[in-house]
Specification:
Blueprint (H helix, E strand, L loop, with lengths): L1 H24 L6 E2 L3 H9 L11 E7 L3 E6 L5 E2 L2 E8 L6 E12 L2 E4 L1 H7 L1 E3 L2 E8 L3 E11 L4 E11 L1
Parallel strand pairs: 1-9, 4-11
Antiparallel strand pairs: 2-11, 3-5, 5-9, 6-7, 6-10, 8-9, 10-11
């Protein structure tokens, strides 16, 4: 009888611990603010866009380094929170330097470096960065992605998208 009680106690502790680790390990329900309150207030003072963009755009402005593919955000008129799925691809067989990835946000005439904020929430798998749950206010948003390869060749891409209420 005592063994059965001990076995049931051990089993219940194991199940509770497993459920806890599954819960904290699931980042899909976790969100984070991509912009700090001061940056959000600066956005509010900018002249509003005449209308939301119809779809996401991606422009490569300098492309002699690794390829930059943005699988997310994608689509039309996104809802917050927004997910990021950025993939860097080697060019001419030269390895991608993931430590060189920089993500800047367009705030008025300036660019704000958000790399650290995103990396705290991201998972990096090889040359792919995935960050889920970035809270952004409604409006048009632009990110500038910069990456280098092992030969220090650089590629810069700009992705623009809209978030609706």
């Amino acid at each position: 009888m005592a063994r059965a009680i001990v076995a049931m106690f051990v089993l219940s502790v194991a199940l509770a611990g497993g459920a806890y680790w599954l819960w904290i390990g699931n980042k899909s329900d976790v969100t984070f603010s991509l912009l700090n309150p001061e940056e959000v207030s600066m956005l509010a003072t900018e002249e509003p866009a005449t209308k939301p963009q119809k779809k996401r755009s991606l422009k490569i402005s300098n492309g002699n380094g690794p390829g930059i593919k943005v699988a997310a955000p994608s689509g039309f008129a996104l809802k917050s929170p927004v997910d990021f799925d950025i993939r860097l691809e080697p060019k001419d067989g030269v390895a991608v330097d993931m430590t060189s990835l920089r993500i800047d946000y367009r705030l008025g005439p300036a660019w704000v470096n958000l790399t650290g904020r995103i990396m705290k929430q991201a998972t990096v798998e090889g040359s792919r960065l995935i960050a889920r749950g970035a809270e952004l206010p409604a409006g048009n948003h632009t990110l500038r992605l910069t990456a280098k390869d092992a030969n220090a060749r650089t590629t810069r891409a700009t992705v623009s998208f809209s978030v609706t209420k």
